Amino acid sequence: MSRIISVIFAVSFIANYVFSLTVIKGRILGSDGKPMQAAHVSLHHPNDTKVIKIVRAEKNGQFSLSINKPGIWMLHAAGVGFRDKWITLYIEKEKKVQVEVWLGKYRYLSNLDHASVVGDFNNWHILRAIPMKISPDSILSADVIPIADTIAYRLINVCDGDAVEGMQADRYVYDQKKGYISVLDVKKAKKVKITFDPQKTPKIESPSKVVFAQPDAIISKFAMIMDSLQHKQDLAQAALINYRRSFGNSSNFPFNWAQHISNVENQIKDEKIGILRQALFMSNLTMCMAAKCTDAAIYKKVLDEIPPTSIIWVIKPHNLFYAVGHSGITEAQQEKYMDEVINYHSARSVKIAALFDMYMASKLSDQKEKAAKYYNLLVKRYGKTEEGKKLISRYPIR
């Protein structure tokens, strides 16, 4: 009988596991609505670039991957010649999710005086990047000495942000850390000229777009709230980069968050669904932090709306401590809230962030016993985890 029960339990467990899968299907396209030369979609935990799953899209842009448990996940979409896109997914009970992702074109710089090439020929060392020269017809080029029958390279200082793949390529290889790499077949050539024609770059902004098959579903609305926040942060970052280019530093950088904050506050008034309200409060908190708002009532309201064990904290774990510390509640209340997070939250990343933040705050305020308490908990519970090891080695107790 015990063997029969064991078999039934095992079959039941497998069935539940299979049926608990959420399958994400869709297409990844360029902003022109066409499939790209190469495109990949990967799955991640929030605040973690480590890839859980990755699939290459088919020639028509279609892709499919599965998620084995509910929660908040990050979908990363990337394609040759286009800016990549992060999509925040709130998975509750969905069995199938259909989504179409349109990627925006790279934002190429108008000033290419500092364009350069980095690749396998200089071991991807940015400080040894080869400067590109500009010809009378505005074509950029750099002579490269290959170390094999191929050259793998990327371009620097041609776009806002990090290095990007070049247009000149026999094929593209996707690297999970670098992104797309342009590869040239050069056989036994002693020197190869890598070129870049800025006249072939797009002149009109083409924003990214994410469309769910069921736009009124919670998963779609949640993703749009987080996407809106990311868009606002991108605007602020672009403004900061332009300010630095014009003035050389960012000490007096102005960015008006007021209207963005007001818009989210109006959304909160009309939203009745709990998880969506929490997402909006997280968005509002993030912008208020960026704007350096000093009104304690703002942060107290966040704590009233978002409980210590809410899954929403996985999106920005360190925002939690900021809200607690600026909420105007007593030190005892702060510690109580944080201890609930540390002991009862379901996500390890949030617990580690809370322990670390409490340790650092106690250390900086010279509360040695409290600092030792949180540090020892961090070591005991998470000292063998990858995240814990990094923090402990970087910030040892003194």
List the helices and strands and how they pair.
Elements: H1 2-19, E1 22-30, E2 39-44, E3 53-56, E4 62-67, E5 71-79, E6 85-91, E7 96-103, E8 116-119, E9 130-131, E10 133-134, E11 140-144, E12 150-156, E13 171-175, E14 179-185, E15 192-196, E16 209-212, H2 218-247, H3 258-270, H4 274-290, H5 296-305, H6 317-325, H7 331-344, H8 348-364, H9 368-382, H10 386-394
Parallel strand pairs: 1-7
Antiparallel strand pairs: 1-4, 2-3, 2-5, 5-6, 7-16, 8-9, 8-12, 10-11, 11-15, 12-14, 13-14
Helix pairs in contact: 2-4, 3-4, 4-5, 6-8, 7-8, 8-9, 9-10
Radius of gyration: 24 Å
Beta-strand percent range: 15-25%
**Spatial order of strands in the largest sheet:** 9-8-12-14-13
Q: Termini distance?
A: 59 Å
Given helix and strand content, the structural type is alpha+beta
Order of helices and strands: HEEEEEEEEEEEEEEEEHHHHHHHHH
Total tally of structural domains: 3
Choose one word for the global shape: globular
Low-pLDDT stretches are: 1-19
- The number of E-state strands comes to 16
Profile the largest sheet: 5 strands, antiparallel
Residues in helices, as a percent range = 25-40%
Tell me the number of helical segments per DSSP (H or I, 4 or more residues long). Answer: 10
